Amino acid sequence: MRFRIILAVLARINLFVGLAMVFPLLFAWQDHMRNFEDLFFAMMTTLVICALFSSLFKVPKSDLTHREGMMIVTLGWLSAGFFGALPYLFAKVFGPIDIHSFINAYFESVSGFTTTGASVLGTSVAIEDLSHGILFWRSLTHWLGGMGIIVLAVAILPFLGVGGNQLFHAEAPGPTKEKLKPRIRETATTLWLVYILLSALETVLLMIAGMDFFDALCHMFGTMATGGFSTRNASVAAYNSGFIDVIIIVFMFLAGANFSLHYLAFTGRVKSYVKNSEFKYYFIIMISGALIVSLWLYFSGSYNSIAQALRFGTFQTVSIITTTGYATADFELWPIVIQLFLFVFMFIGGCAGSTGGAIKIVRLVLLFKYAYRELFKLIHPKAFAAIKFGGRVVHKDILESVAGFFILYIGIFIFGALFMSSLGIDIITSLSSVAATLGNIGPGLGTVGPAENYYHIPTIGKAFLTACMILGRLEIYTVLVLLIPTYWKK
User: Fold this and answer.
1) How far apart are alpha carbons 186 and 169 in whole angstroms?
2) First-to-last CA distance in the chain?
3) Of 6, 154, 207, 489, whose Cβ has the fewest other Cβ atoms within 10 Å?
4) What is the pLDDT of residue 152?
5) How far apart are CA 450 and CA 237, in angstroms?
6) Distance (Å, rounded) from C-alpha 348 to C-alpha 367?
7) Mean pLDDT, to the nearest integer, of 325-340?
């Protein structure tokens, strides 16, 4: 393991975090200079540290190994969370917000970069009362983390060369990654361009719908990254606009789809959506879930009209399945059975290659196909029954990887729920807080519901949930492999 190379790459990756702080500085300047000095100090601290390490450790031209790639990706997200926490920490010192410890600041930062959207802010100080600089940085971390800091580095930093392939495949979400271009750097750049185009379109539409430029940008960041940070305590519900709801529903849905399909659509191959098996399952699950929730809300009397039930039921279903976490209603006031539906939705997630989290559609479909095949073999033990997806036979290695991921995911969820309950937290909050952070969703049920936050969770609980966010964002394997003794052996 070449630790000098790892430190060199990490320093250069985190330069992006420091440089990105220029943008909230502009909004802090516009907002009567509130937290301007804090953000500037955070930016300079990040840039100086990263520049120092960059000068001390040079990157050779040799390729990164697979093990080095996984180490860089894991440490990259951990270190990005650290530098991303500095604006909160310095704002606490110089211009108080309700973050009173490093773990709270780190929790908020990691929640942003991992696109989780779980927050400790909005307790003693309302979200609306925070400075525009802090709020913009908070939302910007979503957008940077959505397509991935590491993917951004692969797209821009030429020194990674072929070694960038190791970073891209260790970080990019989903069990499958399509190479749209011959070179991995061109693929990363292409995905980022699609991401930027969709982001610009949503920003314009939100402004047309009535949001000002600042709110439109922040909510676009949360939507396209399937993150969920809002500039209002009441989230999207604060705007009480059906037009805004529809725009965000559409872009949450797009963000939960494979970005490779969006690229193909931009190049004129719109039929790629229809031809893609995972997207078809994604569409069917989303429509079915939205209809079930909406109709149940209507017939249970939660809303007086079917239009209202469809508006709020569809928004919340799309928000949870895509792991965005925005809210237009306090769904803890809805019937218990609807809350249970939403809890189950927390495990689904979007498509592979999307900015969404959780288990992902393709994995769930393959697991169901695998289970069905086992039942089929009980009836026809001598029959050869291959599992197909998208018209292709799925290799045994992929099935084993999916099964292993599912076992680890559920195992971590069960362990996490037991751990959180051991801290004296009620069972509903324990279950949903782990599901919401491991799936990168944000709001859960109980005392971490859409109308509340994670501030009251004990320090050790927040540290554990922070680890869950990173595990979920990097899809477990990349992080846990570092804990295996064999990984450290030559």
Assistant:
1) 14
2) 8
3) 489
4) 67
5) 10
6) 12
7) 94
Would you say residue 37 has pLDDT above 90?
A: yes
Q: How many CB atoms lie within 10 A of CB 117?
A: 29
Q: Phi then psi for 354, rounded to 5 degrees?
A: -100, 180
298-318 pLDDT, tens digit each: 999 999 999 999 999 999 999
Out of 104-113, 139-148, 462-471, pick the least confident: 139-148
Comparing C-alpha atoms, which of 351, 215, 185 is closest to residue 276?
Answer: 351
Q: Does the model's pTM come out above 0.90? A: yes
Question: What totals of helices (H) and strands (E) does the chain contain, helices first?
Answer: 21, 2
Write out pLDDT tens, residues 358-372.
999 999 999 999 999
Indicate the pairing of strand 392-393 with strand 388-389: antiparallel
d(CA 281, CA 257): 11
* DSSP, res 474: T
Q: Which residue has the tokens 């859409």?
A: 450
Q: Tokens 């500039």 appear where?
A: 231
Residue among 455, 432, 452, 434 nearest 444 (CA)? 432
User: What string of DSSP letters covers 373-434?
Assistant: HHHHHHH-TT-----EETTEEPPHHHHHHHHHHHHHHHHHHHHHHHHHHHTT--HHHHHHHH
Residue 64 is classified by DSSP as: P
